[in-house]
Specification:
Elements: H1 6-22, E1 33-38, E2 44-50, E3 57-58, E4 65-68, E5 71-74, H2 79-84, E6 87-89
Parallel strand pairs: 1-6
Antiparallel strand pairs: 1-2, 2-3, 4-5
Bound molecules: zinc ion.
Length: 97
Amino acid sequence: MSVETIDKQYSKLAAEVDAFNTTQTNPANLPIGFHKVVTLRGEDAGLGFYCDACKLHIVANAPSEVRHCRQVSVAPTGWLARLRMKTRRLGYFRSRI
Ligand SMILES: [Zn+2]
């Protein structure tokens, strides 16, 4: 019977988590960037934000400037850009697996 040190166990576990994380690409199918958000009841919940690179997700009422990926994303202010924004309706969590 071989005995592994806790360091080896940890590095093995961390490698497995890293490998799993690299396979994850937006499983909840969130709109990328700023998007409009309404609650389950249809109430306005401001803007949401999601970055597929760093996985930062602000579910609702996001600020107009979001710092992530060593940059600042600014919410579009033009009416046309707002019109084109996707709307995410908050709902119950449903696993796709
Ligand atoms: Zn990011």
